[in-house]
């Protein structure tokens, strides 16, 4: 369990929101969003702030490096999900992405990119955000679930995943694109790939029933298992509980799987047993954050960069 992998980043970037609320701009194509009429807006914001703080502490206790940034503004309700607007890659590469919702375009922050350059070895920053002017979108590691070991980018078609942008990313970053249609139990298109799929080092979680084409479904299942991974097949109901929205990280004592407590509770004992063979599980309380239609994986932008020597900082 102590073996580390290029799949599992040792550090993450998190954003702590001060005025969190579910974004009305994104609810039309995000069926995972919900509303809570039992709490005031102020109470929801305060509890979201507390949940992010607690997640960061639990990750740090497990040995994961957390770079926390504050968002005190009121114009970026989804800023708690930074994995959508940037990603980092081995070799010193950073990508910035074109966002579907105008409010989400305001989440991009130069101070985060400058921190990465200061603390890690960054060779270049490839900025795709100009594609927004052409209504071409690719929302980072929400739109794509990346297999860093086999160099495959899995992407479910949606308003937020343009195949032209995906091909461009894959050419620059040396991934093979695998695109598919995915729908929930009601037949609605799933907005982000990372709510139905999580790829770890020794296992993968995926909702095969959400992949609508049987041939594509079989191909994806085979590709995920090609290097010996064990497959955990998620039901529609488990996806609705954010079971697919998880991420493997490198902790102090080995791999850590971070997901929400709600997601973990939705898994069967046999599914949990498979995961526990490969990673220590961190089940995190984020029910308020999940109102926005994303969960723990969306909250964590993984850092796949090489740290600079401490004496150089």
From TrEMBL:
**Keyword Endoplasmic reticulum on entry:** no
Molecular function GO labels: transferase activity
Q: Which UniProt keywords apply?
A: Transferase
**Pfam families recorded:** DDAH_eukar (PF19420)
Against InterPro entries, the record matches this protein to: Amdntrnsf_FN0238
Stretches for region Disordered: 17-38
Gene3D superfamilies under this entry?
L-arginine/glycine Amidinotransferase, Chain A
**Is Transferase set as a keyword in this record?**
yes
NCBIfam families according to UniProt: citrull_CtlX (NF046062)
Q: What is this protein called?
A: Amidinotransferase
